[in-house]
Design goal:
By secondary structure, this protein is of the alpha+beta class. It has a single domain, classed as 2-Layer Sandwich (TATA-Binding Protein). The protein is built from 2 helices and 4 strands, in the order βαβββα. Strands 1-4-3-2 form a 4-stranded antiparallel β-sheet. It is elongated and about 45 Å long.
């Protein structure tokens, strides 16, 4: 079975999210992650060959977004 997942993130930070993570596009034998910018959003497209590979890719995106959020808050609050 093949899986596809799309995560859409609205970036209110003036496009900073995309510039930070654009190089994180990953492809291996079980999954592929592509990242693209659409207007004021960043889109993560994940394709996976199995559920475990899908979960790993989604978790990777979530961890990246969490680090971005925390870093952004630190910079804003000093």
């Amino acid at each position: 079975m093949k899986y596809e997942c799309r995560i859409l993130c609205r970036d209110s930070g003036g496009g900073n999210l995309y510039s930070v993570i654009e190089k994180d596009q990953i492809q291996n034998s079980r999954s592929a992650l592509s990242i693209k910018k659409e207007q004021k959003s960043v889109v993560f497209d994940i394709q996976a060959k199995d559920a475990i590979a899908l979960k790993a890719s989604v978790s990777s995106v979530i961890k990246t977004l969490t680090v971005y959020e925390k870093t952004k808050k630190l910079v804003e609050n000093g």
